[in-house]
Amino acid sequence: xxxxxxxxxxxxxxxxxxxxxxxxxxxxxxxxxxxxxxxxxxxxxxxxxxxxxxxxxxxxxxxxxxxxxxxxxxxxxxxxxxxxxxxxxxxxxxxxxxxxxxxxxxxxxxxxxxxxxxxxxxxxxxxxxxxxxxxxxxxxxxxxxxxxxxxxxxxxxxxxxxxxxxxxxxxxxxxxxxxxxxxxxxxxxxxxxxxxxxxxxxxxxxxxxxxxxxxxxxxxxxxxxxxxxxxxxxxxxxxxxxxxxxxxxxxxxxxxxxxxxxxxxxxxxxxxxxxxxxxxxxxxxxxxxxxxxxxxxxxxxxxxxxxxxxxxxxxxxxxxxxxxxxxxxxxxxxxxx
Amino acid sequence: xxxxxxxxxxxxxxxxxxxxxxxxxxxxxxxxxxxxxxxxxxxxxxxxxxxxxxxxxxxxxxxxxxxxxxxxxxxxxxxxxxxxxxxxxxxxxxxxxxxxxxxxxxxxxxxxxxxxxxxxxxxxxxxxxxxxxxxxxxxxxxxxxxxxxxxxxxxxxxxxxxxxxxxxxxxxxxxxxxxxxxxxxxxxxxxxxxxxxxxxxxxxxxxxxxxxxxxxxxxxxxxxxxxxxxxxxxxxxxxxxxxxxxxxxxxxxxxxxxxxxxxxxxxxxxxxxxxxxxxxxxxxxxxxxxxxxxxxxxxxxxxxxxxxxxxxxxxxxxxxxxxxxxxxxxxxxxxxx
DNA sequence: TGCTATTTTGGAACCGGTTCCAATACTGAA
DNA sequence: TTCAGTATTGGAACCGGTTCCAAAATAGCA
Lengths: 337, 337
Description:
By secondary structure, chain A is of the alpha/beta class. Chain A has helices at residues 5-12, 16-23, 31-44, 50-57, 73-86, 101-110, 129-137, 159-172, 193-208, 225-236, 250-263, 280-285, 294-311, and strands spanning 62-67, 92-97, 119-123, 142-145, 153-157, 178-183, 218-221, 244-247, 272-274, 289-292, 317-321, 323-326. The first copy, chain A, has three domains: 5-48, 434 Repressor (Amino-terminal Domain), CATH 1.10.260.40; 57-157 and 294-320, 3-Layer(aba) Sandwich (Rossmann fold); 159-291, 3-Layer(aba) Sandwich (Rossmann fold). Chain A is built from 13 helices and twelve strands. Chain A binds a DNA duplex (30 and 30 nucleotides) through helix 1, helix 2 and helix 4.
């Protein structure tokens, strides 16, 4: 059995309060006593029991992260930012992976409790107003990463700007007929108001350039390469097909590339394609895309959370992370230009 | 402040021991008392404080997972198996991500402690004998997933068989000059005895078929596409180049494909390529590869761990998970055949 | 009805820390 | 040398559960 603080106190010939002070390096201990206690600690290989500490302090010294972390690589990268930032603190990270709506609801109900975690990071889920209210009433700070709610602190990349960047790039190349392809704006997970913001950026860029925003150039479907391929085929067989397609994710951009191949269009000569996310594959395939600060988003989320814990307030806030356009080999001037 | 067990006891007019019995549905409570207590619990929205429970029980109700989880997609998939299996139990999962040797050593030293976790899953690290000894002395069960050590319970795919499968496939197609490309057998993380086992499978298959095992057909270097590309180029510019290359990972197989393209060899007409892992990209590119039961490996690891915790013994064991050959479009008979 | 056997029940100790508060040990000045 | 004032120290209560053990309540049987 491991040594307890009482064993140390006994061996060092001091009271337990003194040992506790040494452990938490309080200045209220004389140098000689400190050394005596430290010798005892070393001799007994003592290290404080975390559970007892938690109970006594009334804190869990634990941060929870609710993440759909396996469904897309970008979530994993954000989680990595969370883990990496927490690793240098005294907090443990408990991971709650969500792959179904049921699991999400279960975690949303069970995890945000004072005696379970000291703070909670929620990645890529936009809570409903009721859920946000539950978070607020839980008494622990909850920070959203890659999502946004007016009642909660949020860190999110600037999708609107990202959409603008991508579209502007295509406009600069001379494109005027630019399609937009994404998953549906409202899915059961509430993932994707992101693609809505990207769409808004797309629209803003088009309007600023005086280019038409055509309803038949907007295609939406389930997430994934295959559905995107089908949608892209529809776009590319329109009587007046777009000369460029902006896909709301790289995965979907892959579907677009496939569709182009099938239809017999060369990329980028006949068709320009821009993705979003900059997944590993994007570099391999030379896909022009928008890169987000994924790791940093998790990092900032944790920083905000730890601050909220320290100050015991979690004021709603919104922090936008910049995005960056990565120009590779799938974009070029339109064929007629 | 949330209600405590004493609040419930007071409200229900019973002693705390009785409330505790109701919570842990002990049979030693009369039906009427049980209902009275349950009413009080419901009314106060009581739920037991996990930290207090842990301290009292002397268990952490927590499982730790030390994983290099972001460095490769396959690790994430295994971790997913761990998380998914734990989600239906009373255990929390604390994740320790390792990206540097320092972090690994720190976690190996700090995490396997009775008062920290009840059990530990170590993914994709082969411990040294000293490390294994530390694990055993920690007093908590430690299960290796995707690694193996004679002193510890281990779950690992049958690499040898995987290597055999891939090589046999190429032999069946008529290849006799088959190269093997992998990372070095010993790296600082001790990841890769896996590629050694795969190599052994490769050798076994060649020998069984009476095909030559040539030293100049074995190339090793750092993991990653780029180093693999360089190594493959060496292989492909040999005076008598191999007609097929078996790469120890899909990532490295990508490098082989690039090298083939640069050297002007068509795949699979001039060169057959087999990878290992079946990463997402493999399907996209039509890469023939060996698939492992990644999710299942994490799952089995947890099952073994929970059993060891329940029985309070962690006998060394080794469980091999089957592998499967996925034939796609990068393998064909050799050009001369 | 009386007495033992069996259920139920509650008190109190315990898990291993932290911290308030009073007690003790020092310090320097008078 | 005495005494106030400060620096150290230790005892005990507390965090919120679980569980041993003895006591109380009920049941069963003569």
